[in-house]
Amino acid sequence: MNRVATVLGSSAEFAQQRLRRVQRQRVQAAQRRPKASTGAR
After folding, report:
1. How far apart are CA 14 and CA 19, in angstroms?
2. Which of 2, 20, 24, 39 is the 20 to 30 A CA-CA neighbour of 9?
């Protein structure tokens, strides 16, 4: 049982770290995008 708990725990941590990385990449990509012009002059 301990081995199963260890494997499940480490995979859950990995998934959580991956989710944080993806969210951070999305934020960084949004910050790099130029702001859309409104078309108003």
Report:
1. 9
2. 24
> For 37, which DSSP code?
P
**DSSP label at 38?**
-
pTM above 0.85, yes or no: no
Rounded to 5 degrees, φ, ψ at 18 are -65, -40
**Which two tokens mark 13?**
């941590």
**Residue 33 DSSP code:** S
pLDDT tens digits for range 3-28: 877 777 777 777 788 888 899 998 88
**What are the residue boundaries of the structural domains of the chain, listed by start?**
1-32
